[in-house]
Amino acid sequence: MQIAVTPDPQRWVIIPPFPPPGWAREEARHRSAHLGVTGPQWRSELESLLNELQAMERQGRFARLMHIDDVAHPPFVVDLSLEIAKDDGSKEARRATQRHLVSALLPEAELVRLRPGPDMVGFSGLLRVQRPHPGLVVLRLAGL
């Protein structure tokens, strides 16, 4: 089975773990032009943010993405990972696996049951004691 994730390049910036020299500056210049921002301060702040995100330690095998499609709204960052479910596939085993992933990645998170589509279920977890609020979503397709 092949799984491909293709984020919309107009809205998502993929943060490479080992970018070439000058990557953040070029990406900030490109995003500024795309969003119609001509001021150097916004571009400089975006470049600084991209450098910080690239330098932040990744706690596992994650793809780091930043959503930015409008200068009026702050960008948000997502670490994305695919995990192999090692359970028997029963309803209770699937739920236990999902709960375990949430507690392993974000202990003390408030769990909320999700059903974003007819063939997908999972949990979201949000930790409200910090700002910004770290959160996560664990989803599983039906039959997997």
What fraction, in percent, of the residue positions are helical?
25-40%
Distance N to C terminus: 11 Å
Specify Rg, calculated over alpha carbons.
18 Å
SSE string, helix = H, strand = E?
A: EHHEEHEEE
Structural class: alpha+beta
Give the arrangement of secondary structure elements:
Elements: E1 12-15, H1 23-35, H2 40-55, E2 63-67, E3 76-80, H3 91-105, E4 110-117, E5 120-126, E6 135-141
What labels describe this entry?
elongated, 31% helix, 3-stranded antiparallel β-sheet, 144 residues
What does this entry show, briefly?
The chain is an alpha+beta fold. The protein contains three helices and six strands.
Structural write-up:
- This protein is α+β, with helices and mostly antiparallel strands and 144 residues long.
- The protein has two domains: 12-80; 91-141.
- The chain has three helices and six strands, in the order E-H-H-E-E-H-E-E-E.
- It has helices spanning 23-35, 40-55, 91-105; strands spanning 12-15, 63-67, 76-80, 110-117, 120-126, 135-141.
- The protein has a three-stranded antiparallel sheet, covered by helices on one side. A three-stranded antiparallel sheet has the order 4-5-6, covered by helices on one side.
- Helix 1 crosses helix 2 (40-55).
- The model has no long low-confidence stretch (mean pLDDT 82).
